[in-house]
Specification:
The chain is α+β, with helices and mostly antiparallel strands. The protein is 18% helix and 47% strand. It has a domain at 64-214: Porin (Beta Barrel), CATH 2.40.160. Strand 6 and strand 7 (162-178) form a beta hairpin.
């Protein structure tokens, strides 16, 4: 009986020693697990790529100079009511903090009978919602003056007879600018013009409806 107990004890000690040897062997041959390191830059770049939209808004400078073109119709009123003229108006534009100014070359004309109005205008316009307006729509009002030459083919003569008159004109303008926060703008405006002297013993004035676009300009 004592011999059997002694044999069991020896067997237990042998198993324990074997387990200890296996543990030490496993520790000496530890498996290195590769670590995945993500730098702050890569994380920030990934976040930027996720947050960045496909079509980027391009905010403009607060003060800049650009140019553009307007096109529309001019409906003559006053003594020449009934005439409708095509209007083309290239312009340069200075945009300030709380206003913008235009130097424009309005050209209005029609045929049968010929009727032409060519001018050089300076207009000052004010976005009446001010800097608090953060939308893409910016309504404005304003006005200006310019020098105009108006010519008309008079009817009722056996030979061509043209009446022409030059003088100072007055503009009153109201409009809306679209895509305000981008590097180009589209506009819609209504313009009233009157020549401040008689033309052929009549008053020459009218209302124009224009759409226009500005050239791309710089960013902040």
């Amino acid at each position: 009986m004592k011999v059997l107990t002694y044999g069991k004890t020896q067997l237990a000690l042998g198993v324990t020693l074997m387990l200890l040897m296996l543990v030490r062997e496993a520790q000496s041959q530890s498996i290195e697990v590769p670590q995945l390191s993500l730098s702050n830059n890569s994380l920030s770049n990934n976040n930027a790529n996720i947050d960045e939209p496909t079509l980027m808004q391009r905010p403009t400078k607060r003060i800049y100079v650009t140019g553009g073109l307007k096109i529309g119709e001019f409906f003559v009123q006053g003594g020449y009511v009934g005439h409708q003229m095509l209007a083309i108006e290239p312009y340069g534009k200075y945009v300030g903090e709380n206003f913008f100014a235009e130097l424009s070359l309005p050209i209005r004309f029609k045929t049968s009978p010929a009727f032409t109005d060519i001018g050089l205008d300076v207009n000052v316009l004010y976005p009446f919602l001010g800097n608090r307006n953060k939308s893409e729509f910016d309504p404005y009002v304003g006005g200006g003056m310019g020098l105009h030459v108006v010519a008309k083919d008079d009817e009722g003569f056996d030979s061509p007879h043209i009446t022409a008159r030059g003088g100072l004109g007055l503009n009153l303008i109201a409009g809306v600018e679209f895509f305000k926060q981008y590097d180009f703008n589209v506009l819609f405006e209504v313009k009233y013009f009157i020549l401040l002297r008689e033309f052929g013993d009549k008053t020459y004035n009218g209302i124009g409806i224009n759409i226009g676009v500005t050239l791309p300009h710089g960013r902040d």
